[in-house]
Amino acid sequence: MAEAHDLQFYPVHLAANGEVLELDRFTGEPLWYASYEKQFSSDGAAGRLVSWHSFDSSWDSWEMHPGGDEVVLCVNGAIELVQDLDGQLLMTPLAKGQWVVNKAGTWHTANVVEGSTASCVFITSGLGTQHKSR
After folding, report:
1. Side-by-side strand order, sheet with 118-124
2. Is 1 among the domain residues?
3. Each residue of 52-90: pLDDT tens digit?
4. Total domain count, the chain
């Protein structure tokens, strides 16, 4: 019998060969991401990290995925996804069940309404992800 897992704590990797691989417990630490990249670098842009994150405040940084697109699916609450498109900020509100794509190379961040919590599932081509302060 298959064992159920909580995506908030145990993300999965969608491998280029079609396998779904359980990952170590998510810590949010840079070392976790570095280990992930090292372990799955051979999948290149075709590999995808599937993770769930909850937010009770707006992000304090920007991120960008140079190797491939990312799906952001809001599963609870609401966020405003902010994308920097060549210096123009595109604000996209997302409510439960709505999704949007961050195209490869697009810097993005998110706003959360103060006093609320939002949860999103991310399907990310994460190799080479970059961050910068907001």
Report:
1. 20-22, 12-14, 48-55, 118-124, 70-76, 99-102
2. no
3. 999 999 999 999 999 999 999 999 999 999 999 999 999
4. 1
Q: What CATH number corresponds to the domain at position 80?
A: 2.60.120.10
Residues 6+ apart with CB under 8 A from 106: 64, 83, 84, 85
Name the amino acid, one letter, at 42: S
d(CA 108, CA 89): 9
Q: Which domain range does residue 25 map to? A: 12-133
Say which residues have a Cβ less than 8 Å from residue 98's Cβ, sequence separation at least 6: 73, 74
- The pLDDT score that the predictor gives to residue 115 is 87
On whether the pTM is more than 0.70, the answer is: yes
Cα distances (Å, whole numbers) of residue 66 to 48, 108, 118: 13, 12, 25
Residue 91 maps to a domain: yes
Neighbours of 116 (CB within 10 A): 13
Question: Does any domain span residue 95?
Answer: yes
